């Protein structure tokens, strides 16, 4: 007997079942979006309708992708289809994509493997990296490597300082493509050009978690064109949490961090998270549509227009349209975040991953003054937001200023 989905649904034909799921998926996203105004999309993005549908489908294809029988081959086909969708958005070959359990895991696999493979003991990175890069490099320092972290005031990468640091002892360079705190974009093509000019044999890794699907496709593709490895995360584009991917340039073989079965060509063993991968693939297909980026661009322009007169905007020269860092000097970030939350609007005081740390390393490196850093808010946009939501944020900030006392 072929296993299928619950009784009533199983009796319906596949087209009817799919149509029902599609209607439910769209309704679920709509209901979610109307619970509150969600403007913290750099922390995570709502699960898209396409991703929800893909999960339903993957739950029906319940086989183990490594099993040779019919159930296994159905699951394998779904997994490989998802890999193709991720590769299409990244603009690389399908077999250059390895599924991982998160963007964090993808960064860790790449950094430890490339440091070990490199010819020296020096690693060059930036002060503003996400903790999933910053902390592995601190661990590598304990293991005998030397990490040099270049400062990026205003979100600008210092190519001269980089060229000076790049020497024969440099095993690895790791620079994020877009900052999760400020939205600043780092030019991976130019970084590779400096490495080529200096005849560097170091490997280049980029954390592309916040740029994947957010930058214009040709610019985003610098990650796979010029870096040796690049990391991506599903939940930043409408997939589910706990799914990531690592791009590894063809011909480059990396040692795994974990050992087990041969899944993901033994670089990331463990039975694959099929619903997660399928949702990731579907979200890649959706975010690739030009409307998705056009929506973001329009929302970002509208948001900066609305907030410009009432807040200090920190807009890097090159930025993604999904992250806007602002300051409300005189107000504490936490107070504002809580006030807005009580009034139905979610924004962030700083990235969710570093919110427990006292001082925000990335904001300090960006060059924010004490008052600007104390009152910093990160607004994260996604293609699911609307202009009226950004209007509501601006109005709420104005009201907040009349109700909350400036701290002394
Ligand atoms: N890198 C950046 C720039 C991020 O913003 C994040 C998540 O916030 C990660 C890596 C980690 O991704 P994940 O949450 O999938 O572990």
Shape: flat
Give the radius of gyration. 22 Å
- The helix content, as a percent range, equals 40-55%
Number of helices: 16
Average predicted confidence as pLDDT: 92
Largest sheet: 7 strands, mixed
- Extended strand count: 12
Strand order of the largest sheet: 2-8-7-6-5-3-4
Order of helices and strands: HHEHHEHEHEHEHEHHEEHHEEHEHHEH
Question: What is the assembly state of the chains in this entry?
Answer: single chain
Counting helices, strands and paired strands, the structural category is alpha/beta
Strand content: 5-15%
End-to-end C-alpha gap: 72 Å
Small molecules held by this entry: pyridoxal-5'-phosphate
In the predicted model, the low-confidence regions spanning at least 5 consecutive residues are 1-10
Descriptive keywords:
binds pyridoxal-5'-phosphate; seven-stranded mixed sheet; 408 residues; single chain; alpha/beta; 12% strand; three-stranded antiparallel sheet
Q: What's the short version?
A:
The protein has 408 residues and is α/β, with parallel strands linked by helices. The protein is 44% helix and 12% strand.
């Amino acid at each position: 007997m072929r296993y299928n989905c619950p009784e009533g649904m199983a009796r319906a034909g596949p087209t009817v079942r799919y149509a029902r799921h599609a209607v439910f998926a769209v309704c679920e996203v709509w209901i979610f979006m109307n619970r509150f105004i969600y403007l913290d999309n750099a922390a995570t993005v709502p699960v898209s309708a396409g991703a929800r549908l893909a999960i339903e489908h993957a739950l029906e294809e319940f086989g183990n992708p490594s099993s040779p029988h019919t159930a296994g081959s159905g699951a394998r086909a779904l997994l490989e289809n998802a890999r193709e969708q991720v590769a299409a958005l990244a603009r690389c070959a399908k077999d250059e994509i390895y599924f991982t359990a998160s963007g964090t895991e993808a960064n860790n696999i790449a950094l430890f493997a490339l440091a070990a493979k490199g010819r020296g003991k020096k690693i060059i990175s930036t002060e503003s990296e996400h903790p999933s890069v910053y902390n592995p490099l601190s661990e590598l320092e304990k293991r005998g490597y030397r990490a040099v972290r270049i400062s990026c005031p205003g979100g600008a990468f210092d190519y001269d300082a980089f060229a000076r640091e790049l020497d024969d002892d440099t095993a690895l360079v790791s620079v994020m493509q877009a900052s999760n705190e400020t939205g600043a974009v780092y030019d991976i093509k130019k970084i590779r050009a400096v490495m080529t000019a200096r005849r560097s044999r170091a490997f280049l890794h980029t954390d592309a978690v916040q740029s994947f699907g957010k930058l214009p496709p040709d610019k985003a593709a610098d990650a796979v064109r010029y870096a040796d490895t690049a990391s991506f995360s599903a939940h930043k584009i409408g997939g589910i949490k706990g799914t990531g991917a690592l791009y590894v340039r063809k011909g480059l073989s990396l040692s795994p961090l974990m050992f087990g079965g041969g899944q993901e060509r033994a670089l990331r063993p463990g039975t694959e998270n099929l619903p997660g991968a399928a949702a990731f693939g579907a979200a890649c297909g959706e975010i690739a549509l030009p409307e998705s980026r056009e929506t973001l661009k329009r929302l970002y322009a509208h948001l900066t227009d609305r907030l410009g007169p009432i807040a200090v905007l920190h807009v890097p020269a090159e930025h993604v349209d999904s992250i806007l860092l602002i300051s409300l000097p005189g107000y504490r970030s936490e107070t504002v975040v809580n006030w807005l939350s009580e009034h139905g609007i979610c924004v962030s005081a700083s990235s969710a991953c570093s919110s427990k740390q006292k001082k925000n390393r990335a904001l300090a490196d960006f060059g924010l003054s004490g008052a600007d850093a104390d009152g910093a808010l990160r607004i994260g946009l996604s293609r699911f937001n609307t202009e009226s939501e950004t209007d509501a944020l601006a109005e709420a900030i104005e009201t907040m200023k009349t109700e909350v006392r400036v701290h002394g």
